[in-house]
Amino acid sequence: MEEFALLAVAGVLIIVLVSLFAPKLGVAAPILLVIVGIGCSLIPGAPRILLEPEWILMIALPPILYSAAVNVPITDFRRDLETISALSVLLVIASAFATGWLIWWVLPDIGFAAAVALGAVISPPDAVAATSIGKKLGLPPRLVMILEGEGLVNDATALVMLRTAIAATAGSITFWGAIGDFVYAVIASVAVGMLIGALTVGARSRIRQQPVLTTAISLTVPFLAYMPAENLHASGVIAVVAAGLVTGHQAPKRFSAVDRITDRTNWRTIQLLLENGVFLLMGFEITSIVADAESSGRGLWMAVALAAACTVILFGVRILFVVPLIARLRARQRRIPEVAEHLDAALEAVAEDDQEANPRRAARLHRWRADAQFQATHSLGWRGGAVLAWSGMRGAVTLAAAQSLPSDIPYRTELILIAFTVAIITLVAQGGTLPLLIRVLGIKGTSEEAEGREVTRLAEEIVAARRAFLDNQALLRENGRPFAPEVLERTRSRGLAVTEALAAMVNDDDPDGQAQQHRELRRQLVDVEQSVLLDARAGGTYSSHTLRRAQHFIDEESTRMA
């Protein structure tokens, strides 16, 4: 036990070091962690590690998916739901059957159902490496959103297919039964996830000024969604994603600023350790899997060659799928001006009929008009399609699902090796060359000028709302008395300065500009404050309660500058 505890500590330190130095080396952290894991496994005396698949599927996967889903803007997810669904459902099914047929053709003894089961294992791409590379190189936000959305949902499709294919090996399921099971899994999982998300958000919003308690509830949400869904024979993965989307969407309205800051920090830390830990483990386990395949005596290189062939099939199927998908999106793009014209006419008609008389229809039309504007300004062309086609790296689910294959399946050791080899080939080959592809294609995200205009426009709306609120004659304190005029005027001045600083911060790219100098000066002042507080703490002349309050104030000021 002590040995594994030391390994866990060493793993955390390795993850931190690799995450720190990977950007400087120009390599995505997941790729480097796989290589480091392989190197660590070759150290003389290194222990043999073959983690039970339940540890990843039930303990690691729910927090990983939840931490990603809770940070996904639900509006952007909804706008590309059709594209995300096609990639995460139809593409996974097509990839599973294509690679399953190849495996069955080479290894007919395992049966077609078992071959499709392995195809399901290697079909879902992991978006971690792709999105980390894409965000660093400035891919368009819409393309990153599609990759993240695909990574959230495709795991569920693969795991449901795996479960169905394993049942088919025993002859206990029919084709229509499989379709029914899939539909049931989706509907039941979404219902469970949304219910858990709504209940936990409601409970946390009622706990005021106690971030420790709300954090404790937050850490249980992925498992509260995952376990009931699995017990209902639905998809725990979809339930976790639904709970995360609901929580992320409700957080700005229901949670305090302190709760949101704490949540972001905690879940980013959990996501960093679990996601990267899986890639480190993947590299560490591969040597043990290779040793098992060699000891079986049934052809190590046959398994590696079959894995390479499956990788080619997966890449080919993804290209054949992405091409018509991009063509459809471009065709829709050409119809946007006509759609926008009809929506503008409908909005004018609603305005003439008084929007207050039909607020739901007006809100719906405004949302559709905003969606059309988004599609027009964030088009996804063929260069984006090339990145989408090349972003097919495998990861955590492939690692865990491969080891969950039934022990009585023929060639089980070789099948696990095939899955691991596919994951490593796609991660190193595609993930390693993705930055070069992005640079060669010259894909750029939203321009800083356009982003600056958006921030300025939002800042103006905030200023207008603040002024309207403060100028309201009915504005009263909690005790029913009016605010002092001096307080109102000081609040007006301070609010305007803060909002103008927000716009200046985004628009000022000059490292010697006044906004940058102002931030540097504020940081240095915070350092001075912290130094004085440390001296006071060392002197022992102030009570711990006073020191703690002063520390909280300085921390909050420092957070506002982050």
Automatic annotation (TrEMBL):
Gene3D superfamilies from the UniProt entry: 6.10.140.1330
Q: Where is the Cation/H+ exchanger transmembrane domain?
A: 13-438
Keyword Lyase in the entry? The reply is: no
What is this entry's stated membrane topology? Multi-pass membrane protein
Q: Which residues cross the membrane?
A: 6-22, 29-49, 55-74, 86-104, 152-176, 182-203, 233-251, 272-291, 303-327, 415-438
Keywords annotated in UniProt: Cell membrane, Ion transport, Membrane, Sodium, Sodium transport, Transmembrane, Transmembrane helix, Transport
Top-level lineage group: Bacteria
InterPro entries xref list: Cation/H_exchanger_CPA1, Cation/H_exchanger_TM
Q: Which Pfam families match?
A: Na_H_Exchanger
User: Where does the record say this protein resides?
Assistant: Cell membrane
What name has this protein been given in UniProt? Cation:proton antiporter
